[in-house]
Design goal:
78 residues; rod-shaped; 64% helix; mainly alpha
């Protein structure tokens, strides 16, 4: 079950990253009603990109925190 949860976290994180990148590109290429470049008309895309980036960071951080911190013991024999 833990493996499935980790996989889900990674998938959601990567999808959120892709969505955030797409929304950022839409924000940077936003135009007003006359077709002139105007970033103020695309602020909704900016907020969507920020939220997606936060979701992606939380998912990836959560996936790394869930990993066991077990150190492998190396036995040296003669």
């Amino acid at each position: 079950m833990k493996s499935m949860t980790d996989t889900l976290l990674w998938v959601v994180g990567l999808l959120a990253f892709a969505l955030g990148l797409w929304q950022l590109i839409l924000f940077l290429g936003a135009t007003d009603a006359r077709g002139n470049p105007d970033m103020w008309s695309g602020t909704n895309h900016l907020w969507a990109a920020i939220v997606a980036a936060i979701v992606a960071c939380v998912c990836v951080a959560w996936a790394f925190v869930r990993r066991p911190h077990v150190q492998e013991e190396i036995h040296i024999t003669e």
